[in-house]
Design brief:
The complex is a heterotrimer of chains A (162), B (305) and C (347). Chain A has 7 helices and 2 strands. With 162 residues, chain A is mainly alpha-helical. Chain A has 2 domains: 5-93, Winged helix-like DNA-binding domain superfamily/Winged helix DNA-binding domain (Arc Repressor Mutant, subunit A, Orthogonal Bundle); 102-161, no CATH class. In chain A, strands 1-2 form a two-stranded antiparallel ribbon. In chain A, helix 2 packs across helix 4 (67-79). Residues 1-13 and 146-162 of chain A have low confidence and may be disordered. Chain B is 32% helix and 29% strand. Chain B has 10 helices and 14 strands. Chain B has helices at residues 42-50, 71-76, 92-101, 108-118, 131-144, 161-178, 189-192, 213-218, 227-236, 273-282, and strands spanning 2-13, 16-27, 31-35, 57-62, 66-67, 77-80, 149-152, 181-186, 198-203, 206-212, 220-226, 238-244, 248-254, 267-270. In chain B, the strands form 3 sheets. Chain B has a 6-stranded mixed sheet, sandwiched between helices. The radius of gyration of chain B is 21 Å and the shape is elongated. Chain B starts with a strand and ends in a 23-residue tail after the last helix. Chain C is mostly helical. Chain C folds into 2 domains: 24-234 and 315-344, no CATH class; 238-312, no CATH class. Chain C contains 13 helices and 3 strands; from the N terminus they run ααααααααααββααβα. Chain C has helices at 24-32, 34-67, 74-97, 100-120, 123-126, 133-163, 166-169, 177-180, 186-205, 208-228, 273-281, 295-301, 316-344, and strands at residues 238-240, 257-264, 305-311. Chain C has a 3-stranded antiparallel sheet, with helices on one face. Mean pLDDT of chain C is 85; it is low at 1-14. Classes of the chains: A mainly alpha (162), B alpha/beta (305), C mainly alpha (347). Chains in contact: A-B, A-C, B-C.
């Protein structure tokens, strides 16, 4: 019995490229799961700037979750600068998680390798290096003010570690 | 706007108080779950909110400050009682026509589309429909009235898992599309965890917990640590429920917020809504209410008022 | 704290919403009580058809019988005795049975009207709709009451026509108990009263079957009260001392209804009872009178006058209006009380 005919039609009702899925056993709050899935889709290229996120009504009909949860997730994405709502139309992706260009990445690698060599020489093992780095990272962004990181290219990578 | 606001509301049948000293304010735009064991007073509360029962004590207003049973209240609230009552000798189409005639607003097209989508034939007598179909019919009639507040008394009790999902999907969609606020009662909290964002916990005719789910979950946690320290910790914190083994203890505590420091040597875990509700239901003296009457305790394993 | 606090629907009236129009209740009442209304109309209709067919036959027999000449011949006597035995028997039985019609209609139409909602729990649906429970009740009660009353009136007209020949041949007049009730506007009024008693009982007791039982009991009590006592007190009676009105020589169909008699002596004071008894002893019930005088002459010799309080047949319509009047007032009161009961369970 399909209540939400939109999703069963080819291409989905509003043409959002992605579809959400919940993992009830993960312990991660629902709204955060939605945020993470959007970011993941951005990274993998399923979503590009200008794409529309699934309509609240469609998400709610297929996942049977509270619409306020979806709204909270979308607001979080807006705060992070990844999405923007257009009144009467929906929520659209407006930025990507910055993919830094390859030459820039190479330029960043070298000093990092140097620092790692110095850390090892000082006697830190792998876990110690990770702990030190994580704590400095946290302080760095705290001082920057707010959880929003607007142009943090490393954002996507280090979140997995934390 | 508060969709339902009560002050000292109570209802007495003979000598038993089905509901007592109920003071709460349920905000609009939420799905509020009224949770409690059988006989806790959920149906009594709902009946008083829609005018089917007269309060013995206290007051109740709806949709802002409308008196219960006033034309504005009747117009803006759609109620589906337990067992989804409809006229069994009328067909689904007749029930649509009937509801249309008895209300100012009725979205005929929506009702037809929904029933068609659910596979409920308009010509079939309501008595011949399955329990799930009748529940969906009653819900369709209620939603087609385009209410501001939808009140559902134990709507899922008679439904199989698929029907429950369909039912809740309809309710959620209505919230998303039309801004309908919802109050529903249930004694099966596990099902409601995904959809509820406001909780009212009733036990023995009294309100034990009321608040936004987000806030409730943010200010409760389970602390796991050495059983030996449990008692001393319990004196400093507000413990709702304690479980202990020989060496290890779990304390479900109420904190000031998610940033409260974790006592050294203890681990903090988030709680689920179900865990929270069950803990309170097992601790009759504990309550989380707006205002100063917060949890106090002296015993480590239970909480006194 | 949610976007949803601003509903997407059109702006709500901040004042009380416009009430749902009354005319909607016509379809609602019809659909909810279709089976009952059709049954009542069908039964009354079927009996009416029977009365019409049988009535044609009876009217024919009556015409033949009265036109029969010579009046005393054996053939005419046979016609007459046939008429009184078969036709009259049937009509008599029907007339008595029809006394039950108002209460049966009232009980089976009125009692379940509201009680069934309460018994089956559908009031939890009906009383939370926008139309409002009191307005629903008023509309239903009035619509069904009017329909049933009109149907009852039409039916009583058919029966009046059917019964006409018997007013001349039986000892009944239009003021006789079973006849008065079955014609004019009183039959319809009793049906209305029974219906409103039923509806009130249904709302009070909230269970259909006990409500029907109570309706039957209350109606029968009221009806008996009217027959035995109330009608005597309608302000239409006359007093006379002229005995010629009552000597039975006039057509029995127009003989007045004597309510009571009393005797006065000289100067208008109450008569000496022993003297009265002496005089009356001259005219035993079984056997010929012991004197050639009429009772009036015999009494006059002792300066005693016999007085009669009576209701002449010409007062039929005033009586009808009085009875229909108080029945209507009672019905309106009961409808108001029923609606008040409906409201009382409200906030």
């Amino acid at each position: 019995m399909e209540i939400d005919k939109g999703n069963s039609r080819a291409g989905s009702s509003s043409g959002s490229p992605i579809e959400f899925r919940l993992d009830p056993a993960s312990g991660v709050p629902t709204y955060l799961q939605l945020v993470q899935q959007v970011e993941h889709a951005l990274r993998l290229g399923y979503l590009k700037p200008g794409d529309q996120l699934p309509k609240v009504r469609d998400v709610v009909a297929s996942l049977t979750i509270n619409p306020n949860t979806v709204l909270k997730a979308y607001r979080e994405l807006e705060t992070k600068g990844l999405a923007a709502g257009r009144p009467g139309q929906g929520t659209f992706i407006q930025a990507t998680l910055n993919q830094v260009a390859l030459p820039e990445l190479t330029t960043l690698r070298r000093p990092l390798l140097g620092w790692l060599t110095a850390a090892e020489a000082a006697g830190l093992d792998e876990d110690g290096i990770v702990a030190l780095f994580t704590s400095v990272l946290r302080d760095f962004f705290k001082r920057r003010g707010g959880s929003a990181d607007r142009r943090g290219a490393v954002n996507g990578e280090t979140e997995d570690v934390g | 706007m508060n969709v339902i606001e009560t002050n000292g509301l109570g209802k007495c049948y003979g000598r038993t108080w089905a509901l007592r000293e109920c003071t709460l304010a349920i905000p609009a735009g939420h799905l509020a779950a009224l949770v409690g064991p059988n006989g806790a007073g959920k149906t009594t509360f709902m009946n008083m909110s829609v005018g089917l029962a007269v309060p013995t004590a206290g007051t109740v207003t709806v949709l802002g400050d409308q008196p219960v049973g006033s034309p504005a209240a009747l117009d803006g609230i759609a109620f589906v009682a337990q067992d989804a009552p409809v006229y069994l000798n009328l067909s689904a189409g007749d029930m649509l026509h009937l509801t249309r005639n008895l209300n100012r607003r009725f979205d005929q097209r929506y009702a037809h589309e929904r029933l068609a989508g659910l596979g409920i034939p308009l010509g079939k007598k309501a008595g011949k429909l399955s329990g799930g179909q009748r529940a969906q019919l009653a819900l369709t009639l209620a939603l087609a009235r385009r209410p501001q507040l939808l009140i559902l008394d134990e709507p899922l009790a008679m439904l199989d898992p698929l029907a429950r999902q369909d039912f809740m999907a309809t309710v959620m969609t209505s919230m998303a599309e039309d801004g309908v606020s919802v109050l529903l009662s249930s004694h099966a909290l596990a099902e409601l965890e995904r959809v509820t964002d406001y909780l009212v916990l009733l036990s023995g005719g009294q309100v034990q917990v009321t608040g936004e789910v987000e806030d409730l979950l943010a200010c409760h946690r389970v602390l796991t640590g050495p059983a030996a320290e449990a008692d001393s910790l319990a004196r400093q914190l507000r413990v709702v429920q304690a479980r202990r083994g020989g060496a290890q203890a779990h304390l479900l505590v109420r904190t000031g917020g998610p940033d409260d420091p974790v006592p050294p040597g203890w681990e903090a875990h988030p709680v689920s809504l179900e865990e929270l509700a069950l803990a309170y239901l097992r601790s009759p003296g504990a309550e989380v209410l707006p205002g100063p009457s917060l949890v106090q305790h002296t015993e480590p394993t239970e909480v006194a008022r | 704290m949610t976007v949803l606090t601003m509903p997407a629907q059109p702006a709500q009236d901040t004042a009380a919403p416009r009430p749902v129009p009354w005319r909607r209740m016509i379809w609602v009442t019809w659909r909810q009580h279709r089976a009952m209304l059709i049954s009542v109309l069908a039964v009354l209709g079927a009996i009416s058809v029977f009365l019409w067919i049988a009535g044609l036959d009876i009217h024919h027999n009556y015409a033949v019988m009265t036109a029969c000449r010579p009046a005393g011949s054996a053939a005419c006597q046979t016609l007459s005795s046939n008429f009184t035995s078969t036709d009259w028997t049937m009509a008599n039985v029907l007339g008595i049975l029809l006394q039950l019609a108002p209460v049966l209609i009232g009980a089976f139409a009125g009692a379940p009207l509201l009680a069934r909602e309460l018994e089956t729990g559908t009031f939890r649906y009906a009383w939370t709709q926008g139309f409002g429970r009191a307005r629903q009740a008023i509309a239903k009660l009035v619509l069904v009451a009017v329909t049933i009353t009109v149907a009852a009136w039409a039916f009583s007209e058919v029966f009046t026509w059917f019964f006409k020949p018997f007013l001349g041949t039986s000892s009944l007049t239009v003021l006789s108990a079973t006849v008065f009730d079955a014609r004019g506007i009183v039959f319809a009024a009793w049906t209305l009263a029974a219906f409103t008693i039923g509806a009130f009982a249904g709302m009070l007791i909230r269970r259909v079957v006990p409500a029907i039982a109570v309706t039957l009991g209350a109606y029968l009590g009221l009806n008996l009260l009217a027959w035995l006592e109330l009608r005597k007190f309608y302000p239409v009676s006359l007093v006379t001392s002229n005995p010629s009105l009552f000597d039975g020589s006039t057509n029995s169909a127009t003989s007045p209804w004597v309510l009571s008699t009393w005797y006065t002596g000289p100067g208008g004071k109450p008569a000496n009872q022993s003297v009265v008894n002496q005089v009356l002893a001259l005219f035993p019930h079984n056997g010929p009178p012991l004197t050639n005088e009429t009772p009036a002459q015999a009494l006059a010799r002792h300066h005693i006058t016999e007085w009669f309080r009576y209701i002449p047949v010409s007062r039929f319509w005033p009586m009808q209006f009085i009875e229909a009047g108080w029945l209507l007032a009672l019905s309106v009161l009961l409808i108001a009380a029923t609606v008040w009961l409906v409201r009382r369970r409200a906030a």
